[in-house]
Design brief:
Length: about 475
């Protein structure tokens, strides 16, 4: 009989068309096949998915992959299908007919790998079909969403323990590209498994080819000039990240005067337009992209040579995630952060918008309840006017709508004109302390980011420390270079 090791090598060769593993992939796959749990911290683009896809093909039962990234599921599944792997996904993007068809397939024993969003575990129909299958492996992608310490907390995600129970406690693999020590502990705790049962694989987070630099800037003019100077010296693709769409627009106007070509990407463009811009970006050899943090999910262009942050991001996690899109080909890539006091003020107002108080949350709930289905005759701006009186830049309403969606208080969206209340407000959203604790965490993360910008110590060491890993001075950041002189 073949050993698991022989089997995974054979599948690696026959199905995935490669012969060698990247660091730790083999050990992680084998560990799952031995029935042991893992927490995998691996930078994007390093072959994280292979860690669960390989054992999934050997296991007798079904592998369920929980992911919050609905927009990526179809691509992930299409890629697996191209390799001849029986995979599928179920999420809210499917129509009823298609969903029922897939449910039928699951029941009949089809598929080796099934991607679902965490909300699925609230649906009776789904729970019924998976009860017909033996679940061999549970992969929890983007596992940092479990934690309120993280950037993208999703309440449904914090129910992993319950999910595991529902599917009879299979082998579990949590995977993420970023997790601070707090987040790692939270993932383990929420899984309901004792810490000693989960092995952590921490695969290094910051690629050595990324050179980290910070420039202090006094005003916009200085900032624009620095950006221009840096991109002029770069022979390759550059992404410039901004916090606000209106700062992108202002900078774009300035570039127009200088007759410099660029592309723009942000969340308020139509989905069709975003798709087109993304496609063009992937195809072009040398391009300048101005974007908000909406740009990045699913961007896997190997040769981005420079990532500039024109405005300070909200946390080291966000910063690290965004620079992680640079230099995937391993070649030297510069990551430049421009730090100015005015931009910090923008982040501080973000903090307020991202953390509306209990009264505001309740007011939105009351308003939605009162409007009933009439809410869908309004667009977002109209609704905003009803709850926010001071300024149009106040996006607390968006935060509350996101929260309601995350907690299952509402279904649908205002854009799709199908928003409706389906449940009561959860206790958490009515607790002042819960809301305040979140605010304190967000504030602390911003302080850590500012300290990074102002620090005169090795940048890479600072990031590693933040993620709970030891590191030596990198010799490849602005501060190391100053010290070496
Ligand atoms: Zn350094």
């Amino acid at each position: 009989m073949k050993s698991n090791e022989d089997k995974i090598y054979q599948i690696l060769h026959d199905t995935f068309g490669v012969d060698e593993f990247r660091p730790s992939q083999k050990e992680i796959s084998l560990r799952a096949l031995d029935g042991e749990h893992s927490l995998v911290l691996m930078p994007t683009g390093m072959g994280k998915s292979l860690c669960y896809q390989l054992p999934a093909l050997i296991f007798e039962g079904l592998t369920i992959v929980i992911s919050p990234l609905i927009a990526l599921m179809k691509d992930q599944v299409d890629q697996l299908k191209k390799l001849g792997i029986e995979a599928s996904f179920v999420n809210s993007s499917l129509g009823k007919g298609e969903r029922e068809a897939r449910y039928g397939n699951i029941k009949r024993g089809k598929y080796k790998i099934l991607y679902v969003s965490p909300e699925r575990f609230r649906k009776k129909g789904f729970l019924d079909v998976i009860s017909h299958r033996k679940i061999s492996l549970l992969a929890l992608d983007e596992a940092h969403c479990v934690s309120q310490w993280g950037n993208d907390f999703r309440p449904d995600y914090s129910r992993i323990r319950e999910f595991r129970n529902i599917i009879d406690n299979p082998v579990t693999m949590a995977l993420t590209a970023t997790a601070t020590v707090n987040v790692q502990n939270d993932i383990i705790e929420k899984s309901g498994l004792p810490a000693e049962k989960i092995k952590i694989f921490n695969e290094g987070i910051c690629r050595p080819n990324l050179s980290l630099e910070v420039f202090d800037v006094i005003d916009e003019e200085e900032k624009y000039n620095i950006i221009l100077e840096q991109i002029a010296g770069c022979n390759g693709t550059v992404v410039v990240y901004f916090s606000l769409i209106k700062s992108i627009e202002r900078f774009a106007e300035w570039l127009d005067i200088k007759k410099i070509r660029y592309s723009i990407y942000h969340g308020r463009l139509s989905p069709e337009k975003r798709k087109r811009i993304q496609r063009e970006f992937m195809e072009m050899n040398k391009t300048l992209m101005l974007a908000t943090n909406a740009f990045g999910m699913g961007i896997d262009k190997p040769d981005i040579r420079m990532i500039i942050h024109a405005e300070i991001p909200d946390s080291i996690e966000s910063y690290y995630q965004e620079i992680g899109r640079g230099g995937r080909d391993g070649k030297s890539t510069r990551c430049i952060l421009l730090y100015g006091q005015d931009d910090l003020a923008v982040q501080i107002s973000f903090l307020q918008w991202k953390n509306p108080d209990v009264i505001f949350i309740r007011n939105v709930y009351t308003l939605l309840k009162k409007l009933g289905e009439h809410v869908n005759s309004y667009d977002y701006e109209d609704l905003q006017e009803k709850v926010v009186h001071k300024q149009r830049d106040d996006h607390r309403l968006q935060t509350v709508l996101n929260l309601f969606d995350m907690y299952g208080v509402t279904e649908g969206t205002i854009d799709a004109k199908n928003l409706k209340i389906v449940d009561e407000m959860p206790d958490e959203l009515m607790e002042e302390t819960f809301i305040r604790t979140k605010m304190d965490r967000d504030r602390q993360r911003l302080i850590d980011m500012v300290n990074y910008a102002k620090s005169s110590a090795c940048r890479r060491e600072a990031i590693y420390k933040y993620f709970g890993m030891g590191a030596k001075k990198c010799g490849n950041c602005d501060n190391c270079r100053v010290l070496e002189k």
